[in-house]
Amino acid sequence: MTRIFFEESIPQGEAYFSTLGDATSFNGPSLAPEQLGDVDYLAVRSTTAVTPSLLAKADKLKLVTTATAGTNHMDKPALDVAGIAWRSAGGCNAVAVAEYVVSVLMSAYQDKQLNLSRITVGIVGAGHVGTALAERLHALNIAFKLCDPPLQQAGDHRHFVAMDEIMACDVITLHVPFVKAGEHATGHLLDAKRIAALKPNQLLINACRGEVVDEAALLHRLGQPDAPTVVLDVFFSEPEINQALLPLVWLTTPHIAGHSVEGKLRGTQMAYEHVCEAMNVSSSLTMDNFLAVPEAMPFAPSDRTAEALDWDSLATLLLSIYDIRKDDQLFRQDTSRDGFLHMRKHYPVRRECGSHFLRIPAPVSEGIVEQLSGLGFQFNFVR
Ligand SMILES: NC(=O)c1ccc[n+]([C@@H]2O[C@H](COP(=O)([O-])OP(=O)(O)OC[C@H]3O[C@@H](n4cnc5c(N)ncnc54)[C@H](O)[C@@H]3O)[C@@H](O)[C@H]2O)c1
Ligand SMILES: O=C(O)[C@H](O)[C@H](O)COP(=O)(O)O
């Protein structure tokens, strides 16, 4: 009988993997090498460190798949050496992270009077997340710049700028993997020099990995009277995070930027398909087997003939779908190690715009239709 081990934080893991064999769940940090002795396939999230010592007795293991975009919790060279295939769920939660950043911008519009018509957003990393964000900013008519040297070198046809140009943008948002070494290493990509140069009217968002920012330098900069505004979803040493940072950052969340219902379930779906492929069997389950359809929402633009929605309407609509400020308030009730883990484990249901069906009084301008489509909404018109 094929044996599959899956991390207990993988939503619907039992329902998916038990169709393929004997499926057993485990708690990420407590997984021991002895448990993997007769396991064929291992499915993890980022909270299982796949190290050479964990693999020491995994003689039958054919594949490790992670239901996450990031892969820095897996020792990929060690897996290669051991002849164990590895896969990841690139893109599974790109929309969720993009919507997280959009929620930051809409909150800054409401609470900090950020003029969204005049800002430029600097996106560092133009992969799945950076691209999903760029698409949404385009729909919102918010200017943006992209920086991604690896993609630029690989011949991606989009227009890219250098990191220095990004550092001059009104909003800087980080969407790179944590890569320790090599030409495009990202550890402390935001180093002390770049952090020291941040201006008080700049907004920095880190929803990729804590290691990408020099946290000590950030703490120092945030302690200065002309500090920039900072939003942090990720930290250097999760879940035991540097508590001194928290009163100094505007909004903070416990690594949940990608935790929409769809973002997590898409990760499971991809991991399940990786195991199916490795077993050479066809996949029979889809996300529709598990996703409830949210109730249709009425939405009436204040000026239906305008070329685009006004900022008040957009902020109200988008923050009704996901309001990061609520997550910030919830997290600040307990930012300890236990609080961090508890909020991640019991995260409230958060659906992506694409799951929502808007009922809009007809007629509306083509510009508004394009905007709502670009933001991912489904809709129909009512008379
Ligand atoms: N907070 C969360 O919940 C959450 C959710 C999803 C992803 N993430 C993190 O965000 C990262 C990005 O996710 P993704 O799905 O877009 O990954 P991706 O691999 O699709 O894209 C990453 C992009 O970063 C680029 N890049 C690499 N090094 C760079 C550098 N030095 N400068 C600029 N660009 C560089 C790559 O070329 C690639 O295009 C993941 O690796 C993960 O660590 C976090
Ligand atoms: O890399 C990713 O996909 C995200 O950071 C993901 O949300 C992290 O995975 P988790 O810690 O939720 O298992």
Précis, in short:
One of its GO terms (molecular function) is protein dimerization activity. Residues 306-360 form the Erythronate-4-phosphate dehydrogenase dimerisation domain. By secondary structure, this protein is an alpha/beta fold.
- How many helices? The count is 13
Helical content (DSSP H or I, runs of 4+): 25-40%
Order of helices and strands: EHEEEHEHEHEHHEHEHEEHEHHHEHE
The low-pLDDT segments are: none
Please state the CA-atom Rg, rounded to the nearest Å: 22 Å
List its traits.
alpha/beta; Rossmann fold; 13 helices; 383 residues; five-stranded parallel beta sheet; D-isomer_DH_CS; 3 domains; binds 4-phospho-D-erythronate; glyoxylate reductase (NADPH) activity; binds nicotinamide-adenine-dinucleotide; NAD binding; six-stranded parallel beta sheet
Structural overview:
- Its main location: cytoplasm.
- One of its GO terms (cellular component) is cytosol.
- It catalyses: 4-phospho-D-erythronate + NAD(+) = (R)-3-hydroxy-2-oxo-4-phosphooxybutanoate + NADH + H(+).
- Keywords: Cytoplasm, NAD, Oxidoreductase, Pyridoxine biosynthesis.
- Catalyzes the oxidation of erythronate-4-phosphate to 3-hydroxy-2-oxo-4-phosphonooxybutanoate.
- With 383 residues, this protein is an alpha/beta fold.
- It folds into three domains: 3-88 and 261-289, Rossmann fold, CATH 3.40.50; 94-252, NAD(P)-binding Rossmann-like Domain (Rossmann fold), CATH 3.40.50; 292-315 and 352-383, no CATH class.
- 32% of the residues lie in helices and 15% in strands.
- It has helices at 13-17, 76-82, 94-112, 128-140, 149-153, 163-166, 192-196, 215-222, 261-279, 311-321, 324-332, 337-345, 366-374; strands spanning 3-7, 22-26, 41-44, 63-66, 85-88, 120-124, 143-147, 171-174, 203-206, 229-232, 251-252, 297-298, 357-361, 378-382.
- A six-stranded parallel sheet has the order 7-6-8-9-10-11. Strands 2-1-3-4-5 form a five-stranded parallel sheet, with helices on both faces.
- It starts with a strand and ends with a strand.
- The model has no long low-confidence stretch (mean pLDDT 97).
- The structure holds nicotinamide-adenine-dinucleotide (NAD) and 4-phospho-D-erythronate (DEZ).
- 4-phospho-D-erythronate binds next to loops.
